[in-house]
Write a structure and sequence with these properties.
Blueprint: H1 2-24, E1 41-47, E2 50-57, E3 61-66, H2 77-83, E4 87-92, H3 109-122, E5 128-133, H4 135-146, E6 151-157, H5 174-190, H6 197-210, H7 216-219, E7 226-231, H8 239-248, E8 253-257, H9 264-267, H10 269-280
Parallel strand pairs: 3-4, 3-5, 5-6, 6-7, 7-8
Antiparallel strand pairs: 1-2, 2-4
Length: 283
C-alpha cells in the first residue's frame, strides 16, 4: 500500500512540476488571437493618400489600440473583448499592414502618427487614451510629444525611443521569428497586395534602421500621463532602455509584466487587460 501511495505522490509532484514549468514558460509561446467580437462600425478612412482599415467596438470613453510592426488589428482581440465592455475601442491596421494600403512614401513614425490622428478626425474623436504595442507605442509617444491635446493617457508597451534600445538577439529569436512568419501568412490573407509582403517588410525596415531617434530633451517635454511597459522576457527591447525611458519622461510609471515577452497581450490577456484598465481609468 505504501508503494502505491508513494507512486501517487510522485505522479502528482511530477504533474505539478510540469504545470509550473509550463506556466513559467508562457513567455516562449505565441498564442493565436481569439476571434474578434461584433463591431459597431468598420470601414476605410482615406488618410494621407492611403485607405486605412478601422473598426469600432463598444461605447464609453475612447481608447485607441495601435498594433506593432508587421501586425494588424486582430492581435488586440482579447483586449477588445474586455475593454469594449466599458469603453469605445478603436482599432486599425497601420499603413501597409493588414488591410490598409501603402504608398511609395518612406515609412516614418511621424507619418504613421499623422495617419492615426487623421483617423481620429474621421471618427470625430477629439481626445483618447492610447494603448500602443511596439511600433504602436512609438507612434503613441510621437503623438504625446507633438499633439498632447489629443491624448488622455498613453500606455506604451515594448516601445523604444532610440534604435540602440533594440536587443540585437531579436534577429535570431525563435518566438519573434514565428511572429514574422505568422504575420506573412496573415498579410497574404488580408492585404489587397497579398504578394508584396517582402516588399512591404523591406520598405518598413528602412525606417527601423534609423528611427526612432528622440533626444532626452524631446522626451522630457511629454506631459501626457504615460506608462512605460515591458514584459520581463521581452525579446526585442532591453530592460535597460525601458528603465531609461521611464526615468526621462516626466512622471512616467514603469510597469513590468511578469512571465511575458514582447507578445504579452497574447500570452497573458487577463493580466494585460487589468493593467491597461487600471492605468487608463485612473483619476
Amino acid at each position: 500500500m505504501r508503494s502505491f501511495w508513494t507512486a501517487v505522490v510522485i505522479a502528482f509532484v511530477s504533474l505539478f512540476s510540469i504545470a509550473v514549468a509550463s506556466a513559467e514558460e508562457r513567455w516562449l509561446t505565441l498564442p493565436e488571437p481569439v476571434p474578434m467580437p461584433a463591431s459597431t462600425e468598420t470601414g476605410y478612412a482615406k488618410v494621407n493618400g492611403i485607405d486605412m482599415y478601422y473598426a469600432v467596438y463598444g461605447a464609453g470613453d475612447p481608447v485607441l489600440l495601435i498594433h506593432g510592426g508587421l501586425g494588424h488589428a486582430e492581435i488586440w482581440s482579447s483586449q477588445v473583448v474586455e475593454l469594449s465592455k466599458t469603453h469605445k475601442v478603436i482599432v486599425a491596421d497601420s499603413r501597409g499592414h493588414g488591410r490598409s494600403s501603402r504608398t511609395t512614401d518612406p515609412f516614418g513614425y511621424e507619418l504613421m502618427a499623422s495617419d492615426y490622428l487623421a483617423l481620429l478626425d474621421h471618427l470625430k474623436i477629439d481626445k483618447t487614451a492610447i494603448v500602443g504595442w511596439s511600433d504602436g507605442g512609438i507612434i503613441g509617444l510621437d503623438i504625446a510629444m507633438k499633439h498632447p491635446e489629443r491624448l488622455t493617457r498613453l500606455y506604451a508597451q515594448a516601445a523604444n525611443v532610440t534604435t540602440d534600445g533594440v536587443d540585437p538577439g531579436v534577429e535570431t529569436n525563435k518566438t519573434f521569428g514565428a511572429y514574422i512568419e505568422r504575420s506573412g501568412r496573415d498579410y497574404a490573407k488580408m492585404s489587397k497586395t497579398p504578394a508584396e509582403y517582402e516588399a512591404f517588410v523591406a520598405q518598413i525596415s528602412e525606417m527601423w534602421k534609423t528611427q526612432p531617434n528622440w533626444t532626452k530633451d524631446q522626451l522630457a517635454k511629454i506631459t501626457v500621463p504615460t506608462a512605460i511597459v515591458l514584459g520581463d522576457h521581452d525579446e526585442a527591447v532591453t530592460r535597460k532602455h525601458t528603465d531609461y525611458m521611464a526615468s526621462i519622461i516626466p512622471g512616467a510609471e514603469l510597469i513590468i509584466l511578469p512571465n511575458t515577452s514582447h507578445f504579452a497581450m497574447l500570452q497573458a490577456p487577463d493580466e494585460y487587460n487589468k493593467s491597461v484598465l487600471e492605468f487608463i481609468e485612473r483619476k
